[in-house]
Amino acid sequence: MKNTPKRKQRNKPGVVLFTAVAVMLMLSILLTATVSYVSVNRTKTNDNYKSKQAYLTASSTLESFINQIKTDTAPTNDPTAKAQQKKAIENLKKLASANSGKGTTTNVSYNGVDGKSDNIGTTKITVAQEGTSAKYIVVTCETTYLGKTEQVAAHISIRSDPKPADYTNTIELVGNGGAGYDNLNVIGDMAGINNTTGKVYRFTNNTSIYGSYLMYGSLEVSTQPLIMLKPSLVDEKQGSTVTISENLDVSNEFHINSTMARADGYNYVNIGQKLSTSNHMDVGSSGFDVDLFCCEANIGGNDYTQYGNFYVYKGAGAYNGDATFGANGQTINGSLYVEGDLNVTKSLKVTGSVYVTGTITGKDKIVCTASNIHEGAVLSKAGRDAKPQIPVSADAYVYYPEDFFMSNDTNVTTISDQYQAFYDGSNTKTFNTFASDWTNVDYTLTELIDLTGTGAKTPVTSRYKLRITSSCTWASDLSFNDYGNGSRILVDVSDSSGDIVIRLQNGLNLGAEWSPVIVVRNRSTIIDTTTGDRKYNCYFVSDSGSAITLNGIDSVTGKSQHSGSSACNYSFKGLKVFDYDTYVRMFDSSVLNNTKGNPGLPQSGFVLNPTSVDVAGSYRPKNSSIIFLFGENTTLNATDQSFFQGSFYSPQAIVNIATSGLGGLVVTDSAGGKMTVQCCAVGVVIANSFGNANTAFYVYTKPSTTSVMQNAKGDKDDYAYGYELDRYDHY
User: Fold this and answer.
1) pTM for the full model?
2) What does the pLDDT average to over 519-528?
3) Over the Cα atoms of the chain, what is R_g?
4) What does 276-332 look like in DSSP terms, one character per residue?
């Protein structure tokens, strides 16, 4: 046999999950999948093609095995399916470890289309260990055809990985304190995930959320906030919900509406304890029902209007499922369900039915068909009437930025070497280092780009005052005369650069006279075949020092512990950070050809699409490869029209983006609807505490699945069982 491993070799990264089908049965099914291929080609072969036919038969058999697994499998949250996946992996390991690691061999014969045996050779499939551990497996197909033998193999690494992080919230608060939001506007979902009782969040001055909202604690509402339930930006087939684990207190106008007709599984408000209103609350609208659940209700003041069903069910402790309706003007365009007692003190209109388990006081004030009022009723709590569950906790963050900075575990981080190089003296480069190299100064880039989405590429030229091509420190050593006044700085990520890690020097303070514009271009060619994300990313990291100690995983919480992280403080005015592919589409040539200055408003016709589906005439960015990692006790203050396109992972830091952001940005939804916004950030913001000011929007875009953020989050007992296909070989 020939030993030419480079003749056919392809890298295919990504984790592929097994189905619940028994491995031996799967082998049998997959082997038969090659019969039609071999039969069609049998008559075309001759003596000159014996080796080729043997190779084609072996490779098609092996690739059918791999491709069928890919086709039949998908990530799942179902516990039974996970158990079956684990069993399938264990079966495969048993096959490989048999015969002291030499594995298990299956002989296969091929039949013609008439069902009779064709004398065109046989294939042996062997599943064996590669080395001393069944964690590494090689699947070999060896075919002999008319005396010629060819052999191909797939090299596999068994994986049992914690569930990959899934980032679904535009803004996510991790801290155990409350927060107040003034003119905060979110396109996408928002959450406060720390399940600490007694927290109070406050919405004021026209705060709006266009998506779902989940919070642990109580919400106090004043000054006309809006929650507009929209399809999920993660999966357009899913709807949206509002979940508040404790109390909702509405002292001024509050609107919860929807752009979707109600369906099981979404369009509801779920309050874990008490709902109180004293001035105007709207829930749902005609044709767009939104159901509401709580454990006690006190509807008062002026105006309560709902399209959908109103449910008051018993809860823990003193919450007996009682309801009082005493507002001036109250209408439920749906049905009312009360598990305790109902007290109606002012006229209540109900277009559906009223079901009360206890007693009704003020029955004469209920405007409803008499036969539809049921006292002493038994509530089914099934189907639509079942109270949604409030999750005990959100997915925990297992690893923190400190782990990414200091861990030696490559399953946790890929950037610790670059980070620690700043402190061991092996990387002393700063932005000014690149400014000393004339090849990086006044840099002009021309690239063919598909601007229209039609596949036709046109040359696009953009110019930059400075180009950064490797990891370095952003320090305060640049000349203001050369690099102030909105200088454009290109960060150029490539295969040769690998991950670019930019350390922000502690205390970096740049006023409005600097207003730098950072553009990150990612042209790494190694791409995840599942997500399309490029292997390498750009990280902006805090100057948290090298004295960080990783103290292991807490046995109770399952979270990493650390100490020794240095506090950092940063202040930027007018800082703008763009992804290159968005930047060259957002602005016209008059902006792209300048190396300095505020880029201003996006060009007419640019429409940003943050949804999971393509919308004609819009640009949908890929998952962001720009990641901000801020360690414990770091504070970022960004003001004066600052804008960030990238994801913040700062679960123990404070992020204050008190800025009006980028003006004139047109954003579309999945239906093609458009709105023009002042935008502060496009990405994901995860912080211990978050502050905002001014009327500005935050728009959802997922972080790259190849970034270290993919390892940060997930249940420590929730594993994905599968394998990584390392490569194919032909021998």
Assistant:
1) 0.77
2) 94
3) 30
4) EEEEEEEE-BTTB--EEEESEEEEEEEEEEEES-EEE---STT----EEE--EEEEE
